[in-house]
Amino acid sequence: MDVRKQFHVTENLGDEMRIELDLGKCAGHGVCALEAPEIFDIDDESGLAVLRTERPEGREAAVNTAVRGCPERAITIA
Amino acid sequence: MPHVSTDGVASRVVVVGASLAGLSVVRALRQAGHRGDLVLIGAEAHHPYDRPPLSKQILLGDAVSDPSTAAIALAGDGELADLGVRTRLGVRACGLDLAGGRVLLEDGTAEAFDQVVLATGAAPRRPSSLPPLAGIVALRTWDDAVALHAALRRARRPVMLGGGFIGLEVATAAATLGRTPIVVEGAPTPLHRFGEQVGRAVAAIHRHQGIDMRTGRKVVAVEGDGRVERIILDDATVIDTDLLVVGAGAAPATSWLRGSGLDISDGVVCDDACRSVSDPRVFAAGDVCRWHNPLFGRSMRVEHRQAALRHADVIAAAIRGDGAASAAFVPYFWSDQAGTKIQFHGHLQPGDTVHAVHRDGARLAALYSRDGVLTGALTIGAAGWSARLARQVAGRADPATALRLLTGPPHQRATENSHHPLEST
After folding, report:
1. Name one Pfam family in it (chain A) (predicted).
2. For tag attachment on chain A, is the N or C end more exposed, with fewer CB atoms within 10 Å?
3. Residues 6+ apart with CB under 8 A from B61
4. Spatial contact of B391 and B422, defined as CB atoms under 8 Å apart
5. Which of chain A's residues have a Cβ under 8 Å away from the Cβ of B383?
6. Which domains, and CATH codes, for chain A?
7. 23-52 in A: which are within 8 Å (CB) of B?
């Protein structure tokens, strides 16, 4: 089973910002889905986070809040 | 030499409390560009660590010798050095001298501040009726958790006083370690403030894993010779026990602030920017902070991990001069019990209505409201529901609308998923 998803996002300044969501750590708190609902959701079946979009432009602050807010520290920005 | 911050003030900030709230204030200040001196004072000798795992993984023995090397470490020497924060760990603050602008420490030293952030957390309540016997313990710190893990492994018959979240998590750990714990709860069910149906569902989960739930029972005597040996309940039941874990809630750790001039009636009383109503140089974060949450129009104090992070962001913004900084958010906590996750988004007050309970197999959701507005949502084993309901609480939805999201046809759910109340206003 693929427990790790990655994708690339682009910041406004053109810097590359990569979000990694470690589903091995995710416990379905949903803090990410509350902080950045355009980016994250909780899947009904698995109860774990999913990435909703690969185009989060303008939402970097919310993504950062989701990263800090995740109780399992399952989200990282590379 | 102090740096001059971008707003022209060489502000020296002292943070009292080196757990998640205090550390997060330091991080948030640096991230916001604060260049002034930072001092982080912590009563525990350990580096900052995360507390929720203490009553979960750590009680099961997922422990190593030191929290700074364990998975629960929040920051090590490297990050603390990068943050440019001077740490005073293992020394307790014992007074706040507002006139002199100083925090007084137990070792006789003092730290001068331009702004001070109070993040001293909460301490377990110990009912005054409990005698001073060995074998009666509470859980708050890393050291407590390591000691309790060892005690649970040795105990013949552990008893939890109180069927709240901590008591139930400790009971879960005890059962996992092969013990047959007893939970004594005075209310008719555990977690009774969340309503009868939630309480009964939680009790059933725990009975199923072999925990002996004595609900509706009060302890009338605790006896032993030097060490706890037995407790007596109000129905005259005698329970032999060698380990009594007190889960009677926690009180904000503000006793050291008595006489300082701050309003500390159930926490440090603050405005919506987590700034003390008594002194504009003083802020409070985390468990100790009683702040006005504009989203609910209420003053509240919560002992949740996520609130500490929010407070920290708001305090950093306020210290940096952002007059619009406001801690308007939906509090969240969770509890892992018997392999099931209980999640709660919102804030309950006595008198809130338990509006509806929805079940679907093992999943359960309970909604709470006041004056027709959703004030909270609790779910058991239903993370997907929890996330959706959190948005409804944030959006001040009415309970009927929120309930329809759980019961309506799939296309309705899809519509809701693309609607974000946080962004709509």
Report:
1. Fer4_15
2. N
3. B149, B153, B177
4. yes
5. 27-30, 42, 47-48
6. 3-77 (3.30.70.20)
7. 27-31, 33-34, 37-38, 41-45, 47-48
User: How many angstroms separate the most distant Cα atoms in chain B?
Assistant: 69
For residue B64, the model assigns a pLDDT of 59
Number of neighbours of residue A24 by Cβ within 10 angstroms: 11
Given an 8 Å threshold on Cβ–Cβ distance, is A37 in contact with B423? yes
Determine the Cα–Cα distance for residues B281 and B99; give it in Å rounded to an integer: 11
> Which of B74, B413, B420 is the mutation pick for testing A, counting most A CBs within 10 A?
B420
Q: Is B38 exposed, middle or buried (CB count within 10 Å of its CB: 0-12, 13-18, 19+)?
A: buried
DSSP-derived letter for residue B186 is: S
Tell me the backbone φ, ψ of residue B215, rounded to 5 degrees: -90, 160
> Under DSSP, is residue B163 helix (H, G, I), strand (E, B) or coil?
coil
SS3 assignment, position A64 = helix
pLDDT above 80 for A54: no
Closest Cα in chain A, distance from residue B313 (Å)? 9
Cα(B255)–Cα(B258) distance, rounded to whole angstroms? 6
